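Wed. Picked up where I left off yesterday with FXL18 protein. The coffee machine is broken again, so keeping this brief.
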Amino acid sequence: QEVVSEESEEESNGVNLMEFSDEILLHILSYVPCTDLVLNVRRTCRKLATLCLDKSLTHTVLLQKDYKVNKDKVKQLMRDIGKEIFQLNMAGCYWLPSSTIDHVTRCKNLVKLNLSGCHVTSLRLSKMLSTLQHLRSLAIDVNPGFDASQLSSECKATLSRVLELKQTLYTPSYGVVPCCTSLEKLLLYFEILDRSREGFMLSGQLMVGESNVPHYQNLRIFYARLAPGYVNQEVVRLYLAVLSDRTPENLHAFLISAPGSFAETGATKNLLDSMARNVCLDALQLPKAWINGSGLLQHLKFNNPFYFSFSRCTLSGGHLIQRVINGGKDLKSLTSLNLSGCVHCLAPESLFRKAEDDIDSSILESLVVSCCNLRHLNLSAAHHHSSESIGNHLCQLLSRLKHLLSLALPVCSITDVAASVEKPPTAPNLVPQTFGRKVRIGIQTYPRNLADQANQKIESSVFWALMGSLRFLETLEIIGSSFSSAMPRNEPAIRNSLPPCVRAQSVGDSEVAAISQLTYLQSLTLAQLPNILTGSGLVNIGLQCQHLRTLSLANLGMMGKVVYMSALMDMLKHCKCLRDLRLEQPYFCAGAQFFQALSHCSSLQRLCIVSRSGTLQSDAVMSFMANCLEVIMCHMFMGESLTVCKNLQQSIVRSFQAERPALNVVIFPLLHEDLTEVIRDVPMRHLDEITLFKSRVAEEPPNLWW
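Structure written out below (tokens, as returned):
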């Protein structure tokens, strides 16, 4: 085969790939999934057989989004290179049977292991960890039935050497935390439901004893993320109880993400007081009730902070500047800032201020100047209205942050002040005013190309200028300040949504077109843009943003009709790299034309459609699944009957499950009373990353886990 290959290359005078240097070939091979390298590519020729087993390619094995991997492939992979693997990431491999974990025991030299989302019993975990004496980093799930008493002494010895632990709890438990006596980093994800499947209320009480007490004396990073529910709050308090007795001296990151109300107690107050006296932090996130109305921020000490989150807090801009930025202190170390839902953070005080009042541009300017190296900024879920002062618009000030990689803004913050003042709210059947050109009543004209769009929108558009200045932005979220998804967590679907902000009424197609300047854009979220009339800007994005991998659109234009369907279908024909698509729109028709356009997205892996009163064509869905071979997740929550949904779901599973082991299909009526029961069976990877709508910019500190 090598001789034939060389002869054919010589005959065609082409470039022979094998003539490249080993360094270049190794770089190319680093983009190939490890399973393909070891099980396929290395069998092609002797040179590749050697290169595919190079330590740079086998040191770290990532299977977390290799949706084609199955039990047999994992078994063969571990048999061939198990001893060469030092880091193994199998996070979210929910489709693999629990027996697959047994083959990890071949990786004797493992230092890092991520099994989040995998099915692991107490006994299997014990057997596996007993053989991994070099393990220092571990991520696991703790499911109902987990019993720490089944862990062997050899397993506990391994756990005692673990320095980093990520633990996702689906049942009230300490998990393996008490065994990890050397912990420096602890990440806890609380996903415990308040009720069992049988409808019984769960208790958050845990057994308390000497053997169950967590060991935090070496802890440097503590992170806890809570799903909604009272039990999650009960359990996390037990984890925090030990911290309140003795705060670790080396603690430099303390983060608790809790939705809704999470009241402060005497124990947590003692913990925060102890932190104020004894530690110097680099990262901070606290429940809003722990910050609101307290002088905590005034007493906490910060060293070189890299992450702050004050999400949903009533923190005023005056307090933000005085207590966090110290009146304009140089904070070049800060790379990620989450002010989502912090409605008064850009105002000097909040006592007599309405949420819709204009922001104080001097506060935002102080923030931009002090935190000039910000890479991730979230200002969503608030009304940030700029005044008419020239040069002080929010978009103009943010354009100074040249290092931004991800940005989340409310829709009302990007509108031109003059346009929003002069222009009354646009009714669904009215045509908005435009600059410089008369428009016939009933007919809206749009620029023919991007250059015309720039000339028409122009220098007076602060949002267009902002997009032009942030050329390296990879993630952008523009979300209506009053938007709420029809699929909240652990609750029935929302039937009514709040109207958009008055300032947002002028934001539409031209603003969307401005986004097409972001050449390196990878993830885009647009929600509650009321003035979308045709969606023409989406086509520009499809043409210009060729790196786009994730697209989420929700409630664009009129609610009674999907006005942008034609433009969306044109856009999809150009999205060759798109992997995740989420659409949330009432009355959405998922028919043959839509799925035919979607079939052009050859890289698509996950699709989620949420539509009150929406319809679907079963034949079109089946044809789409047959044409798009990479799709492994299909979630549709529409207005169809339960019978139609169940029949389609069963047909997809029967037809494609065998060849797509990771296939996850949920098709269910959006307003059905059992929706929450169906949602609880969705793999956490899909639920957290695409099915549930949320702002993800600066949601966690960067590089929190490998």
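Quick read: The chain is about 30% helix and 15% strand.
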